[in-house]
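Figure S7 source data.
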Amino acid sequence: MSKIQVLDTVTIDKIAAGEVIERPASVVKELVENAIDAGATAVVVEIQEGGTSLIRIADNGCGIEKEEVPNAFLRHSTSKIRSVDDLVHIGSLGFRGEALSSIAAVSQVELITKTKEQTFGTRYRINGGKEVDLEDTGARDGTTFLIQQLFYNVPARRKFLKTPMTEASHVGDLMTRLALSHPEISFQFINNGQSRLHSSGNGKLRDVIYHVYGRDIASNLLKVNASTEDTGIKITGFLGKPVISRGNRNFENYFINGRYIKSGIVTKAIEEAYKPLMMQHRYPFVLLYLQMEPEVLDVNVHPRKMELRFQNNELVFAAVKEALVHALSHKELIPQVELTASGGRAKKEEEKQRQKTLNLSPEPFETKRMGLYEQTLKQLTSMPEDAFLRERSSFL
Ligand code: ADP
Ligand code: MG
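Tokens for the predicted adenosine-5'-diphosphate complex:
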């Protein structure tokens, strides 16, 4: 064996980059999260060749002071926490201070940034973790990153990338989720010169949903708005009616304190709530926003922050399930039954009138059919709620 040596920073950063930066979409995620943390109200993301040759991310956030620019690229440098105590009530999306150093270690980066207070902007270039130059430049308030030749110095990683089309679709999916997670921010996504998504940033979630998913989904949603003081969990968003169920889980999306997360607990709660209404192997469309005290979450369990730990799994499970069951029991879900019921009644009235005027009795088979129908309806409506729900699902 060779001698034990402490690795140099460039090598350490390159290794660390492996955890954080897996593909172009990871770069976009980290940089857009930084833009959100910087208070941006508009973010433009442009990629070429699936993001392998170029990723451009421009925001109108607070910018970075010239003196701070090189520091931002140091590993574990962050303006968002000062000590481990701050992790407990973290409000920002970032905190690990390793995105910029990781990205810079595996690509060629150019940064142009300006704060409101500064007259000039700053231009900084860093390739493969090595600083190239730092100079003054004319710039607008905010920050623009240009990431070129991702993984140019990590051939093994580059080889694992999929086709530009696939990589671009990962970025597209991510942009969709980002737009949905922050309706108050305008997001634009440009792929090979073509604008693929442009949300208005007017804060109206329904507008974003319509823009992203289209009319069919947007017009089949139920609102959720639940919060309980005892759990401290607030759940808002939209639930798709069973008619727009899907064959996979791609449309089960939720954000916890503004973060797109995958959680077995939340997924299970969603699916259990929908169970009486769903056929097997069908999954609902949901878009949920969970807000809870940062203290009851541990977001620092995954380098890409895609998972988190809850202090109390049962509490979260119960809160989500209950909020959904409640929203799904809403009358709106039974349009068919209700419509036919009142429609049937109205028809019967109409028929009575007609009979009166014509002084004719209904055809015997018609009387029988109406009787049967009334009986079924009576049975359905006198059932306990859960049985009714189950029965009702066959109508939907
Ligand atoms: P983290 O987000 O975990 O703090 P990063 O490596 O992503 O770490 O960024 C390092 C620091 O650079 C941030 O803490 C922030 O101060 C600054 N920064 C990065 N991107 C931006 C941006 N778009 N606008 C303003 N400041 C930024
Ligand atoms: Mg960050």
